[in-house]
Amino acid sequence: MLKQFHRLVSPKYFYNLAVLLTPWFSWLTALLMIAGLYGGLVFAPADYQQGESFRIIYVHVPSAWMSLFIYIVMAVAGGVGLIWHIKIADVLAKSCAPVGASFTFLALATGSLWGKPMWGTWWVWDARLTSELILLFLYLGYMALQSAFEDRRVAARASAILALVGLVNIPIIHYSVEWWSTLHQGATVSKIDAPSIHIDMLIPLLIMALAFKAYFVTIVLLRSRTEILEYECHSTWVSELLNKVESKT
Amino acid sequence: MTPRKKRIFMVFFITLGMGVAVALILTAFEKNLLYFYAPTQIVAGEAPIDRAFRIGGLVLEGSVVRDPETLEVQFVLTDTLNQVTITYEGILPDLFREGQGIVANGKLDENGIFQAKEVLAKHDENYMPPEVADALEKAGAIGQYGRYKQRL
Predict the structure, then answer these.
(1) What ipTM score was computed for the predicted complex, to two decimals?
(2) Which residues of B fall within a CB distance of 8 Å from A187?
């Protein structure tokens, strides 16, 4: 068991696994994305109050979920790298940040576009919107810190600490609509009794959420492949790999 | 303590320490984090008198009076327990209607009327097709009043 785990976290094995998995997750992303978009934009009925403009939910809500989910993955991977000095954990944490930042930006931008006609304003400084903006700055700060150090191990350590410090923001974002009175509406899907969204609208939303998850895995696999090659550029297996590629061409 | 145990301790200390510190700060600033006051809080005198603040609640059914000449509109905001009258001049958001949750920014005048400078619609967390909404309305199961009461 422990031996298998050690093999999994060896850069060479993980690299080969990532190469193997990337096409599968790319196809999964494409399939889910087409199904989710068709369901959301064509199949789902218009909302009784917002009409057609509620359909932005199919990008906004999955993006917002991903912005939180990726941050947790990033902080946990950073923490694991910090404690057990596992290279792959550091690589994964570093690969998460730009994807998470993009999803956070997407959630903020789509929310703003929706807010103008519905609320009557592009932006308000309520607890939900402000804490989500702080999340974007955390991601950007994390990426800046990663690139501020020459030494990869120092960069990984410093940014993992930043990620752990920022972890406190995640429950604040999630519960902000319950703890304080905000302009942003409360939770729809994760309500304890029953989701207050019609089933025909909910299913495409869940498919889109899965599509975004699959997309995230695909991008992280691609990014970590590059990261591993750079990290391990002096090792024998990478030069062997390079020789193989060169002899092919 | 081995170095690894030390590092585990450090990771826990950072996350827990930050959690406690931020929880304390947020409790201390709780009042300032409220985006709006409810009519009941205003009637109880909890809202500031001399400066602008936000008020949130539901537009009372049948209370909207529009001036036919100008953009001025007057309506009553309720949290089902207490009411505050609001006046506003300007364009209202799409979702503004009777029974709708809204948030207004402005000041209380000496007569206890809220002079709004900005009116924002607060969307609720329910999504459904129009037919379902109609059916629920007929059954008397819909309406923000019902939900507001549940929350209070």
Answers:
(1) 0.74
(2) 125
